[in-house]
Design goal:
- The protein is an alpha/beta fold.
- 34% of the residues lie in helices and 17% in strands.
- Strands 7-6-5-8-9-10-11-12 form an eight-stranded mixed beta sheet, with helices on both faces. Strands 1-2-3-4 form a four-stranded parallel beta sheet, covered by helices on one side.
- Helix 5 packs parallel to helix 6.
- The radius of gyration is 24 Å and the shape is elongated.
């Protein structure tokens, strides 16, 4: 008649095969789970159990989040036991620690809003996105910035997409892409805290050259995505040359176009992404079913 089973037979410190004396119990647990009883495991599923959810004690472990090995764990969460960081890093491996990032982790980075401040007191940004026939990319990126709380956003996109983009981003002023290309970006520098380039921007030679110039010279935060990254396909070494903080947001294919084949295991991928981030002195968000932030 139970609706949930809490299984806490063995933890991650257990070694070797599960003793045969436990086989009948584990069989009964799995049979009940297969019949619809929710199976909640503590630290790790015992033996060959397949959990609906698992509470990881103290720290996230690679086998619980790597798509190649995570299936038996079900949905996972971490119970913070305040283990010393030196201990968890020793357990997890050399230099790469796994941390499951939840909404509270992200919220901690958002600055408190000044209730007496005007829009420019809450961040200003220039979004360079939306080439011909790709206005939707500019809309999605702009909505993301506005929902996150940016105070003032200006959008530079292809002239042909102006009506579409302005119809959706009614808060953001628009500047034609041709006008931006005629001027130097330094004309806008004092107006913006941040610059984001790339979504649906297009791959013309002039556009790619302009992206590379602005990436190198903008003195504050610059985010590079999609076609902004593709502008460096044959010039990935130039990503190391920049004046201010840089954030790269590739998916797997974009990363591999720039830096070569990624390893299969999640741990090795994280190590590779971290190596590239350190080399380029940038922050990288490798997007995917399991995203990696380095």
């Amino acid at each position: 008649e139970s609706e949930i089973i809490v299984e806490a037979i063995l933890g991650s410190g257990a070694q070797g095969e599960v003793r045969p004396i436990l086989d009948p119990l584990l069989f009964s647990i799995q049979e009940a789970s297969d019949d619809g009883v929710f199976l909640y495991c503590i630290d790790q599923p015992c033996g060959r159990l397949e959990a609906d959810a698992t509470a990881l004690l103290g720290y996230a472990r690679w086998e619980a989040i790597d798509p190649q090995t995570a299936e038996p764990f079900g949905e996972v969460g971490v119970v913070d036991l305040e283990y010393p960081e030196t201990l968890t890093r020793e357990i997890l491996g050399i230099g790469v620690g796994a941390k499951i990032l939840d909404p509270q982790w992200y919220l901690a980075f958002l600055p408190l809003r000044d209730r007496f401040g005007d829009k420019r007191a809450h961040g200003t940004g220039l979004l360079v996105a939306g080439g011909q026939y790709m206005g939707g990319a500019a809309i999605l990126a702009g909505l993301g910035a506005l929902r996150l709380g940016i105070g003032y956003l200006k959008v530079a996109c292809h002239d042909s997409e102006r009506q579409l983009v302005q119809g959706e981003l009614v808060e953001a002023p628009f500047v034609p892409w041709t006008e931006v290309c005629r001027d130097e970006l330094s004309d806008f520098w004092e107006e913006f805290d941040s610059l984001a380039m790339g979504p649906g921007l297009g791959l013309s030679d002039d556009t790619q050259e302009r992206v590379r110039q602005w990436y190198a010279s903008f003195p504050r935060v610059c985010i590079l995505d999609a076609d902004g990254l593709n502008a460096f396909k044959y010039h990935s070494d130039l990503l190391a040359h920049h004046l201010g903080p840089r954030i790269l947001t590739p998916h797997e294919n974009e990363f591999e176009r720039l830096f070569g084949k990624l390893p299969d295991s999640l741990y090795d991928r994280a190590q590779r992404v971290k190596e590239v981030a350190i080399k380029l002195k940038v922050e990288i968000l490798l997007k995917g079913p399991i995203s990696i932030l380095a």
